[in-house]
Task: inverse folding
């Protein structure tokens, strides 16, 4: 009887162990596969972040240029006649025309989010930072829209009072406009420039913060990918 | 014969029990894993709610300032001559331009929703309240859009009657140093439009206050759900 109990007990243990081992191996293979896909996805996000950094640097240059021209105009608003019309036109053009359209590639991040592989990321801070990044992009686009709206309000003044100095329509816009209007410019134009400059300044601050945070995310992703 | 039947019956029971036990352990592990993921996700949502609360307080502050300044102008419009152009400009600027744009972080909530982990939340009220929260946020954005559209009605008037004194901003980072350069008193239709805009600011602040209270309940419910054994 004892032998029989021992036999069945052994059989029971073998079955439990065997099935559990199968589950373990199956889970291990599946996790390994998922981990590979997660890393592949993070790699693509890494490339997207590098593109974002490049775009943000371009936008930073644009808005910084616009802001410094706005400062120049406000500082010299009472003595604009002391400067050449080319210089005045150049600064008005930079202060008014320089806007940006940030178009980010969120496809890979959305895929990672919807596939459930996000859960496999071990570093919780990386997940939080990725989520923060893409929700901040929405905010940055909203600020950009505000800047564009303010730029549009000044366009009419720009068209009436300046002319483009070269007729080429190819290449990067160079802001070489000549101011042709009365240099006694109404104060509301300067007020609108200040208004736009405030948003430019705010946007520059957001970009700088984003660039810093993106560098951190790159480090965290590299660490996550290389985690064994 | 009886012995053989008993032998196979026992064998059958041993196999079934053994396999069932393995499945049970496997299922238990999976449930625990998912439960941890759910709690981790709720923990992140908790952090997002903290950020939302800060944002809501900021928005509440900005909208209250706009309401106060509208009332200040409406009450004193017949005697604006008694006040400095700085004061009138200060209040007119706040009444027109102090508006907010809510940008919330919904990423974790959407993640919880798409992963199906939301189904693991035991407290049905918590699920309903989370859904209600993010629907409410969309409603807030609609009201904000409405206020921004109302703001554009003052475009012409403000560009002719307000001038920046400096780039100075107030404690919430909004530029507030503008001088009134127009004719006192402010036209009746402008005051009426400001009062109309104020109605939406009022509605918005009321909604935000309600949301802040609801978020407190949500925080308690999430904490309870995470600590549930």
Result:
């Amino acid at each position: 009887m004892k032998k029989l109990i021992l036999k069945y007990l052994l059989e029971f243990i073998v079955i439990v162990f065997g099935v559990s081992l199968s589950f373990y191996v199956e889970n291990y293979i599946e996790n390994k596969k998922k981990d590979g896909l997660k890393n592949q996805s993070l790699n693509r996000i890494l490339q997207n972040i590098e593109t974002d950094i490049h775009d943000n640097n371009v936008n930073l240059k644009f808005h910084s240029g616009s802001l410094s021209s706005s400062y120049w105009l406000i500082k010299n608003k009472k003595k604009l006649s002391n400067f050449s019309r080319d210089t005045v036109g150049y600064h008005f053009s930079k202060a008014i025309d320089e806007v940006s359209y940030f178009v980010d590639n969120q496809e890979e991040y959305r895929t990672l989010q919807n596939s459930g592989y996000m859960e496999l990321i071990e570093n919780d801070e990386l997940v939080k930072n990725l989520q923060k990044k893409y929700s901040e992009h929405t905010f940055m686009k909203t600020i950009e829209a505000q800047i564009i709206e303010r730029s549009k309000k000044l366009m009419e003044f720009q068209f009436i009072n300046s002319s483009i100095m070269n007729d080429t329509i190819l290449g990067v816009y160079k802001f070489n406009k000549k101011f042709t209007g009365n240099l006694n410019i109404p104060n509301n134009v300067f007020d609108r420039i200040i208004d736009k400059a405030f948003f430019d300044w705010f946007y520059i601050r957001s970009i700088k913060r984003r660039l810093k945070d993106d560098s951190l995310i790159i480090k965290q992703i590299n660490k996550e990918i290389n985690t064994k | 014969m009886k012995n053989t039947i008993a032998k196979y019956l026992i064998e059958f029971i041993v196999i079934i029990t053994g396999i069932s036990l393995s499945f049970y352990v496997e299922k238990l592990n999976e449930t625990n894993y998912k439960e941890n993921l759910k709690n981790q996700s709720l923990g992140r949502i908790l952090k997002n709610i903290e950020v939302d609360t800060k944002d809501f307080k900021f928005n509440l502050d900005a909208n209250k300032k706009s309401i106060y300044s509208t009332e200040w102008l409406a009450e004193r419009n017949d005697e604006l001559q008694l006040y400095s152009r700085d004061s009138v400009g200060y209040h007119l600027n706040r009444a027109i331009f102090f508006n907010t744009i809510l940008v919330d972080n919904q990423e974790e909530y959407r993640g919880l929703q798409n992963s199906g982990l939301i189904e693991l939340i035991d407290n049905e009220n918590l699920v309903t309240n989370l859904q209600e929260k993010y629907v409410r946020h969309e409603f807030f954005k609609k009201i904000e859009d409405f206020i921004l559209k109302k703001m554009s009605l003052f475009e012409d008037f403000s560009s002719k009657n307000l001038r920046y004194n400096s780039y100075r901003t107030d404690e919430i980072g909004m530029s507030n140093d503008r001088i009134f350069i127009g004719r006192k008193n402010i036209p009746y239709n402008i005051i009426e439009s400001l009062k109309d805009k104020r109605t939406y600011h009022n509605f918005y602040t009321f909604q935000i206050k309600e949301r802040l209270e609801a978020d407190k309940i949500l925080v308690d419910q999430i904490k309870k759900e995470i600590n549930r054994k």
Observations:
- Chain B has a mean pLDDT of 92.
- Chain B has one domain: 2-227.
